[in-house]
Amino acid sequence: MSGTQGHPPRRVSTRGGSTPPPSSAPTRRGPGGGAQPRTSTRAQNFATPAPSSSSKKGAKTNRAIDPELKGRARRRAIRREHGFFNYPRNQYTGWRRWVPSWRFVLGTGLFIVLLGIGGLVWAYQTMEIPQAEQFATAQKTTIYYSDGKTVMGEFGSQDRVIVDIATLPEHVGQVFVAAEDRTFYENQGISIPGMTRALINNVTGGSRQGGSTITQQYAERYYLGETKSYTGKLREAILAVKLAQHQDKDEILGNYINTIYLGRGAYGIQSAALKYFGVDAADLTVEQAAMIAGILPSPTNWDPRYNEEKAEQRWNYVLDGMVTLGWLSSGERAGMQFPDVIEYERSDTFAGTRGYLLEMARSELITSVGLTEEEIDTRGLEVVTTIDRKMQRNMVQTVRNMPEDTPKQLRPALVTIDPATGGIRALYGGKNYLKQQYNNVTQGMAQAGSTFKPFTLMAALEEEISPTTEYFNGNNSRTIEGFERPVVNFGGSSYGYVNLMRATGLSVNTAYAELNVRIGPDKTMEAAVRAGIPQDTVGLNDLPSNVLGTASVHPLDLANAYATIASGGIHREAHIIESVRELLDGTQVFTTDTSGERVFEEDIASITTQALAGVVEWGTGKGAQAVGRPAAGKTGTSSENKSAWFAGYTPNLVTVVGMYQVGKDGSESSIEPFGGYREITGGSVPLDMWTSYMTEALADLPEVELPEMPSGTAPPPADDEEEDEEANEEEEEDEEPQPDMVAVPRGLIGATESAARSSLRQRGLSASVTLEYSDTVANGIVIAVTPGAGTEVEVGTKVTLIVSQGPRPQGPSGGDGSGGSGGSTPDPNDPGGSGGGGTPPEDDDDDADEESGGESGTSTGG
Fold first, then answer.
1. What predicted TM-score, i.e. pTM, was given to this entire model?
2. Nearest to 262 by CA among 237, 227, 298
3. Are residues 51 and 93 in the same domain?
């Protein structure tokens, strides 16, 4: 046996020494049956061979540089001291103390995710699918006259016919899937990629997008209503998931295509098929159905009638999608052509002149109230307009009473505004909206002529130019700085030196041209814009000729500007919507602000009104005296008589009557004389129509005086005290240089009475008519004039017209017949008969067809 047999191994010290074995170490049997000592686990751990000197050195080195062991121990110590999240990190200083650890970030993020998932699960479990019948609460919008009771028209009268999708060809549903949601049959109601893409694009400021699936759109339209907020979109998505779990895909698609708005007032595929192609939805071809589905995102703007290029682009997108989804072969796709749509005809609601009012109301609901077209047609609103029903009927009748020989291409435009509110009280935009959608009042335009002079007057007053004591040369054909040709007065009349009051009353072009150059034409333009003429008006500029009305204005804009003068210098935007309320509970949605903004001093407006009152009292608009109320106004006639205006007002109402004529090619042309007038000017037909209409319109309103001249305004100097050296530099006399003299016009004999009256009015003269029987001169023709033609008389002189009343009756007579009906059988639908005035037969306005009790005949004013 060797020296070690039967003895336990020696315990080796890690420090290099030896340690004697324990005195009583337990033993165990080894593999060979011999006894072996039993050592403890601890003893076994230390029973390792003694390292060499080099091993000792290596061990010390490893303990010194091992960062993992050291880091673990340090982290364990930190966790024990600071907890798992360790925030703020107190073991650091400065900004590092506030940098969260990965454990904090991960833990917080995981908590938020779990909380969000829990919230979604809770919302899903607790949300109930609303009853589908709730959608039936959608109602039409009703438009009322200003009384709030009389219906003018309706929008969106629920033009929807529900059809069962099972009765429709498969391609009718497929086109909507291809257009809106190509994963419809695979997704669970929502599209995570689509929603994420839309969210990122919206947050980063890109074009606003929607990530809605068909099911989400269905949930919104059929159950929730319009949802715009992120919270609303989340609720919509949750409901869409629930709907996908509880409703069949075909049921969802069927309800969807019966609900959506597809343009032309049509809701659902059945109504849209009829509106665009005149067929039932069951008879739609693939091409037709694809066109309807393609324009769904913006059906009004992409209607092929208005934007065929965009409609065809979307049509191609839908058909290409059907090829991609396997519902259409490439060969079938290649042979398809873009379908033709039928002409869109609105319902009878828009018939006659009323259609122009309704279209204006609809436009204002969008631009001013902020409603969408879909809201207008489905929300169920009650809209009160500013239109007075009686005034509207009277205005329509005034146009109907125009002479029978009125040119067919003539476009009359009439509008009345309440200067205290800016509300449009009556408007005539054309004969029949269904036949002509062009509104003569809001879209039509013509050169303003002398109706622009008040803006120059106000600008001059702001420059402290006296309207009564400063004089300007009113002689005809003057060369004035800034004008390419000599400036002439209407009819070639010369007026000598005139102050601004007389220059306004007689509409003296030369005096006003001189004034405009003196103050600067930019002042005229700026005053016109402040009053209400839009800055972008065609022809509006800062050239000297702008005083003569070279700008082509819309009649509504001119009326709005004159309303600023009539209201004492306060500008209010012209509007047709007074208020909007919910039909269900009467909640007020919108009320128009009528407070306005002061743009001219009150004294400036008052002086301007007094100057325009002179037009009516003794000037070119003297015929307006027939209304029997204090009134002010201005005539206007453009060069070559291409347009004619009378813009007049009382403190209650502002009314503008304008007319222009278009040729066969649509270009503006000179107005052909009619109604016995040798030429059409602002002082002829427009003035007569204004007088006739305003007489009726003011009948139920209180009489209100015009504002007086401000107390500080100097009166015109007396003739014997005239000392204005500038006005008299060419004359030595002390008297005013003939500002009041005018010649009786020639050509009155042989003219009609109305034409003679008009000619006299244009020269500041009035007429006195004496009727005489004549066997040789037709009824209504002037036989003689006193004083005679060419006689110099003072402005305002009354000229006697001897007018024929035809042959003397041969027997007893019940009257002189001067108020005849015009020789035509009265139309039972025409209030009061035709009264000798021609009635354009195309105008079938329902309001005008109701009994108005108005007088028959057309006022010839005088």
1. 0.57
2. 298
3. no
